[in-house]
């Protein structure tokens, strides 16, 4: 079974549009059985996710999708969980894609499962010494002290290291993702769903490929010397997905995106590949499974 994987199409960002069209055209010309698009196809406007998926209309094999964090950015009054669990699967149906976050699939004996993944701050760098409340608000202490609306975070700074007051990072999901639950609870919900999908596939598939937008292993997190980027590491993924995948012996490949850095390594029995598309340089992976 020949599988093509790409990620981070970002068809809502002007400088990303031309490279997205180009990589989609290349992928549509490939002779492959299945395509997996690993999220961040669009942004707040769900119609752009549809437009981004339709770039792959001419791909001859089966088409699969998992959402990225940008795909569940919403406008005030909208709900990102509704976007993830109702709107995006509907868009996938319209665009000829199968949303692996909803149900797993099988192609020629190979099980395909996937998830947006999420973060529970398990990747946060302890060395920064930043209290959890800043990660929950997705804003570093330096930014929280300068912007309106975060007085509750900085009213008592006795637990905040002086150096952290110079970190001005905001993770923009904090502005655009509107969840009816905490990040930790969403992460848990998605891990449980992925576990159920893997159990289903294990019964009859010879091998399994898992696609996830966020990073499932700490080892995939790019090392960041800049404190601002190190703060952002907390939002790259969760160790819980990695633990789940390592407990499933039939998982042969795990593909992810989100970091925009190409990276591959073997962890236990799994080949992990971060596809590493950036806004301006798109790429894809092809594997025979
Ligand atoms: Fe991205
Ligand atoms: Fe992302």
Descriptive overview:
Helix content is 33%, strand content 18%. It is an alpha/beta fold and 289 residues long. The chain has a single domain (2-130, 173-288), classed as Metallo-dependent phosphatases (Purple Acid Phosphatase, chain A, domain 2, 4-Layer Sandwich), CATH 3.60.21. The protein has a six-stranded mixed β-sheet, covered by helices on one side. The model has no long low-confidence stretch (mean pLDDT 98). It binds fe (ii) ion (FE2) (2 copies). Residues 40, 68-70, 213, 258 line the site of one fe (ii) ion. One fe (ii) ion is lined by residues 40, 68-70, 213, 258.
Short description:
The protein is of the alpha/beta class.
Mean pLDDT: 98
Query: What's the CATH architecture?
Result: 4-Layer Sandwich
Query: In CATH, what is the homologous superfamily?
Result: Metallo-dependent phosphatases
Major beta sheet summary = 6 strands, mixed
Number of helices: 10
Number of domains: 1
Strand order of the biggest β-sheet: 5-6-7-8-10-9
Strand elements, count: 11
């Amino acid at each position: 079974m020949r599988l093509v994987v790409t990620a981070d199409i970002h068809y809502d960002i002007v400088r990303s549009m031309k490279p997205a069209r180009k990589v989609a055209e290349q992928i549509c010309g490939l002779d492959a059985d299945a395509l997996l698009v690993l999220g961040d196809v669009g942004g707040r406007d769900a119609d752009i996710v549809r437009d981004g998926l339709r770039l792959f209309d001419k791909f001859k094999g089966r088409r699969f999708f998992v959402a990225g964090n940008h795909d569940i950015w919403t406008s005030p009054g909208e709900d990102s969980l509704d976007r993830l669990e109702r709107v995006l699967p509907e868009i996938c149906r319209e665009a000829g894609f199968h949303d692996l976050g909803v149900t797993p699939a099988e192609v020629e004996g190979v099980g395909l499962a996937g998830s947006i993944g999420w973060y529970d701050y398990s990747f946060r760098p302890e060395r920064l010494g930043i209290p959890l409340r800043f990660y929950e608000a997705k804003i570093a202490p330096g930014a929280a002290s300068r912007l309106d609306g975060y007085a509750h975070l900085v009213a008592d700074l006795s637990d905040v290291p002086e150096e952290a007051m110079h970190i001005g990072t905001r993770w923009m999901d904090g502005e655009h993702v509107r969840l009816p639950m905490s990040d930790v609870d969403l992460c848990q919900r998605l891990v449980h769903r992925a576990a159920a999908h893997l159990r289903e596939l294990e019964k009859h598939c010879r091998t399994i490929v898992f696609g996830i937008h966020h990073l499932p292993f700490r080892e995939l997190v790019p090392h960041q010397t800049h404190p601002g980027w190190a703060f952002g590491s907390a939002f790259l993924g969760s160790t819980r997905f990695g633990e789940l995948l390592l407990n499933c012996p039939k998982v042969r490949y795990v593909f992810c995106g989100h970091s925009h850095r190409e990276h591959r390594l073997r962890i236990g029995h799994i080949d992990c590949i971060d596809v590493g598309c950036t806004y301006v340089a798109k790429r894809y992976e092809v594997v025979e499974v």
